[in-house]
Fold these 2 entries.
Entry 1:
Amino acid sequence: MLIFGKIYIILSLINYVISLPPKSPAFIRDEFDRKHFLVQDLPGMTTNIKSEDLPLMFAGQIELYSETNMGYFYWKFQDRKKLPENNKRTTFWLNGGPGCSSMDGALLESGPFRVNKDREIVYNKGSWHKLTDMVFVDQPAGTGFSYTDEYRHDLDQIAQDFLVFLKKYFEIFPEDLQNDIYLSGESYAGQYIPYIAQAILNFNKDQQNQQNNQKYNLKGLLIGNGWISPNEQSLSDAQFAINAKLVSPSDKVWPKLAAEIEECQKIVNQVDSTFNDGEIHDYEISSDVCERILTTILSSSRDPSKPNNEQCINMYDYTLRDTYPQCGSNWPNELAYVSPFLNSEQVVKNLNLNFVKKWVECSGRVGRNFNARKSLPAIHLLPELTKEMPVVLFHGNLDIICNYIGAEAMIKKLTWGGKRGFSEDIAADDWIYNNETVGYIKSERNLTFINVFNASHMVPYDKPEVSRALIDLITKNYDEKEGVNVNEIPNKKIITYPIGERKANLENPEDASKPSNENETENQDDNKQAGSSSNSRISRLIQFLVIAILIWGVYVIYVSYRYKSRPVSIIKARTTTTGKKKNVQWADQLRRFQEDDEEFQQQQNVKQSFLSKTIGKLTGNTPNPYSPVPYEEFELNEQESQSTPSADDFKIDSDDEIESKPLPPTPKDDENNV
Ligand SMILES: *[C@@H]1O[C@H](CO)[C@@H](O)[C@H](O)[C@H]1NC(C)=O
Ligand SMILES: *[C@@H]1O[C@H](CO)[C@@H](O)[C@H](O)[C@H]1NC(C)=O
Ligand SMILES: *[C@@H]1O[C@H](CO)[C@@H](O)[C@H](O)[C@H]1NC(C)=O
């Protein structure tokens, strides 16, 4: 007992020293807060994920307002061994809907995991957490694992709610206040993100906050297939369908479609003519006239002669087919695994839910309530936002519903940075990733448009590694080369690399391709980063040596007493360490913490998480402890889909429409598994 006590004290000291973040006296207290949020186990974590890929994870619900019983769920992932370029960054990710859970992002897109048929996690090689800490947030309240008694209706409300969330988030993770903050997301998050960004800028400008030195270092926005300018984008569905040969003038549906295009064009013209009057017009927020275009295209694509699951075009990826009238809402197939995964008892427990509720991908109730009738579409906010930070709009080019043609059309009309649209004489630059042309880029005055080739509505789902390089683009971690001039307009190649590969170039700057002027300043920045990272490498080395010596000391003491102390021997622990299955060993550590303090020594490379783990709860490792729940509820973007609640639906009470929408059937290949 005595020797145990000594070891405990020494190890606690070691841990205290290694996990102490610079200049954060509040650390100990905060650490005790965040321990409740540590994610310690997930199905498949020990068997399917290599230890070096397994991020440090925190998840749980944060109460925003007790009066309305409102709380947000978040899931945070941070790399344990950060690359030098992953330098003090936190990126929040939001999915759209309104009302669709950001667990789509975490488990199907930019997050570190995918869920397989066995409802176990497997690693996503393109996970963004290698370049930035990722925080997936379920919002507005009521979405996913977020809860509330009161539903939100408008964008300014959810922007204020997000500020409340941020305040509490930074109380738990105060060191993140020093980080560069990025907001990212998809689809209807094209509305959320600009509103939240604007609220953050206002927060930073607020005098009182300035006096209190309160500031969030918001550095940029990344919006994927964003829904930003509703009517313009709906109108573009027609052009997109024609270009993709989904419809043609010889089709029976053509006259109907042509009439709808004309009607929608009138509304778009009206929107354009009142764009700057500062008033909120219903027809600008959404127009069922314009939304009808997509409905018409999808229903005309119906082909009853085809097998059931091929009867309609998938509106999120026109190269795919789906059942009618789902037309994409059954997609992606892995969604059928995500839902039972998130509803399993084991996962719910490990995600630290205080308020347990059933997870559905998209909440009809949140969507119905959220009508955004008091807010101008987010396109109006972009000119102000681009004064302060880069705004990147990236579009997977196979998506119909938020297609790239509509995005280019709305940019063409937008005035920002003192000019309208991109200059006539800027070319589309080629985006190169790993020697392949993966898209094109137009960028001026802090607004960047990116067309991502062969990608759907969910770009990181189709192109995980390419999508991660979006972080390199927004943080300027790329090289530029002269390209081929098209029509005498100079075009460039913007070159991004698989993670870690450009670092090699920077370490031998003479080898790097001759940088342009612009590049020189970027490289200087990057070199500065590289320099500070080599400093931190040295200090890490010193830390490691100190720890190793201490551990050796402890080991010597322990071995000399081992027969007098507890039966669980450090030797045993070492056997596992030398075992081949490194991945298994990592999570075993967590479980053993409860019983076995020797595990302390294996934590030298895990900063900050240590105390929380020792106090964390014990979780069993029973195989398949979760019971599959049938897959339920709607598609992404019910707001935009063909059975969409439109402007009029919101006025007339049409709640039942969504509720009574047929549930998509479970995909066939899933059935064997249930
Ligand atoms: C672009 O953003 C930076 C801040 O990141 C700002 O200093 C600059 O003025 C902006 N440029 C324009 C043209 O607004
Ligand atoms: C990329 O291209 C360069 C030069 O063409 C070549 O040396 C390199 O091996 C290529 N890399 C990959 C990953 O294909
Ligand atoms: C990807 O897109 C490009 C350009 O649109 C095309 O040339 C290429 O064939 C596509 N590749 C695949 C694998 O579909």
Note: Confidence is low (pLDDT under 50) at residues 20-32, 509-534, 561-674.
Entry 2:
Amino acid sequence: MAKTGNIPVTLIDKSAHAETAFDSLGFGDAFSDHMLLCDWADGEWKSPRIVPREPLKVDPAALGLHYGQSVFEGLKAYRGTADNRIRLFRPDRNAQRLAASCNRLCIPAPGPDQLIDWISSLVAVEAKWIPEKFGEALYIRPMIFATEGHLAVRPANQYTLVIVAAPVGQYFAQYGRPLRVKAEDRYTRAASGGTGAAKTAGNYGATLKPMFEAASLGFDQLLWLDGDEHAFAEEAGQMNIFFRIGNEVITPELSGTILPGVTRDSVLSLLKQWGIKATARRISMAELRKEAESENLLEIFGAGTAAVVVPVDSIQYQDFDIRARPPSANSISQRLFQSLLAIQHGQVDDTNNWIQFVDTE
Ligand SMILES: *Cc1c(COP(=O)(O)O)cnc(C)c1O
């Protein structure tokens, strides 16, 4: 048995690396060889271990499966273009957000430093799984769910944390073409007082039907609106949404129904550093329609770890189309996309201290 730090590692007998199609990576089709497991019992997170990736044994009455007491995170490890060193992008933010999600779901959170240590250990073991191409990465998915078998609706006494990793390429299959989005004016993703700000399983299960319906009408993605009136923009699927009106960039403020994206926060920081006015505030579909009609709505884009930054062509809301201008070489979304990836791949100085290195000995 090998060790990384003080975590025991059981290595797989036969790696799947050679059979993995690294030249045509999608998102989530392939997984790396190992996973990290850790259990919570008797009031503490115990015995973190890295083992070959395999099905988990779960009690059929596990509270996490029945009642959705389950949270997750998503972040990426990148290869440095010039130095080949492994870089995690703002893992402290993901660790803090996981703790906040745990808090909302009554799950005991691992300490942020502890979690980053576990992530780093797994990434070090899976180093050969990190693709090298610009824009490709090893996606890391920590997840915690209640494993105690019980029927009462109450917080569980036992949990499992699992971290899996997946080499990923571009998120959207139709990359290179701006997205066609439908504003969802009937279904609701998150209501005020609900769990919209937490990365918890139930938020996603509830979006499948509306997403499927929109996809069958030819849309790439949904724009979620506020739950009260379905009149204000909130999020684009699993991305935060941004609108460039004239020379100002606007994103919905974190009202409690919006997931506080790490990419969103990074975009706001970069825009401020570039001297571009960036505002977080409520923005209505009526205002967007008016700005589009007077040709002031220059850009619409989504931002999230999986897709980084993606331009949106248009949003259909009820019976009108809110259209951005066609993307151009000097679009802000393109500059953000390139800049974020340049930081993530170590091509420019990390002046914001966003990178944490993972060193393999
Ligand atoms: C994860 C997620 C985001 C994006 O967050 P990042 O930290 O930037 O990846 C946005 N919205 C929803 C609903 C999400 O689940």
Note: The pocket of pyridoxal-5'-phosphate is lined by residues 74, 199, 235, 238-240, 259, 261-264, 304-305 (CB under 6 Å).
